[in-house]
From TrEMBL:
Family designation: Belongs to the TMEM120 family.
Name of the protein: TMPIT-like protein
Keyword rRNA processing part of the UniProt annotation: no
UniProt cross-references to InterPro entries, sorted A to Z: TMEM120A/B
A GO term from the CC aspect: membrane
Ranges in coiled-coil conformation: 5-32
Membrane topology value: Multi-pass membrane protein
Alphabetical keyword list: Coiled coil, Membrane, Transmembrane, Transmembrane helix
Keyword Lipid metabolism appears in the UniProt entry: no
Subcellular localization(s) per the UniProt record: Membrane
Residue ranges crossing the lipid bilayer per the database entry: 135-154, 160-179, 267-291, 311-332
Amino acid sequence: MEESVNKVEEEINTILEQAKELQESAASLISRSNNDEQSLRQKALSLESSIRSLRSLIDSLVSRKLLDSNLADKLEDDLQRARCILADGDAAAFLPTKAQGRFLKMFLGPINVCATRKDVQLKVKEEYNSYRDKTALLFLLFPSILLFLRSWVWNGCLPAFPVQLYQAWLLFLYMGLAMRENILQANGSDIRPWWIYHHYCAMIMALVSLTREIKGQPNCAQKQRGVELFLQWAIMQGVAMLLQNRYQRQRLYTRIALGKAKRMDVVWGETAGVDGQLWLLCPILFLMQIFEAYVGLQLLKTALVGVVPEWQVIFCGLLFVFMAVGNFINTVKTLMVKSRFKAKMKRTKSKQELY
């Protein structure tokens, strides 16, 4: 019996020693890893600083006409490729991360959402694309079903509950998009700030709309004119989202292959696709923005003439006009950038053909 107790005691002492040795080995490994990580972090920062310095130098030489513009374009392209290699590879984990916005802190608290592994970052991007694909289809179907039922079942007058259910879904949709876009931005994506702000505005509008009473008979058609126009605009938005989601990946894959973009970047509809696709998307986008402004003005008219004199209608009308103007300005700016990029590519191609 005593012999068995001694054996158990020896085994426990052995396990204790092994645990101590394992702890020391782990601590040593972590220390070496931290030192190696710090060294790589300094190299990454130094390389990024060199890229910025060289870009400034090229701009300075071009402005003083000491460097040929075609050669400057080539050097800029090489620096952009180097930046994409640095930001799109495993070395990106050693670059400084972007500060998380207030939106994420408000909902998640002080949680770090930056993924250190590239495969995890790409899964976040894939999930974002999947979310947009699913919601685009629902964005098209939901208002179509409501307008169909309004005409054929509800005798031209929408009940309050289905409309409020739709507004609640819009609140969930835009909150989900804003959350995912903030996380993508924290992980190095180049999502334009306007699109995130646009989704904030859409969230606020959906929330305000939920507090509004949906008027019915009498004069239901007149009182619900704004709701009808909004649902028609939502159908257009759903069509545009489906086209954007289809074409933008083709453009992004091309830019990644050319070293012009990172895998975490997002290409929006007005920059998507080749010229033929752009000729299809641009009229739809501009038409949708004009109709969006029209819906906002009609909501304001409905409130100001006394048909539905509620502050929610005025607020949503102003927000609609603001978002339409913002979307239009952002689309025009993007098309101007695209035009300059195409002109630059033509100059580079012409220079190569001369040689």
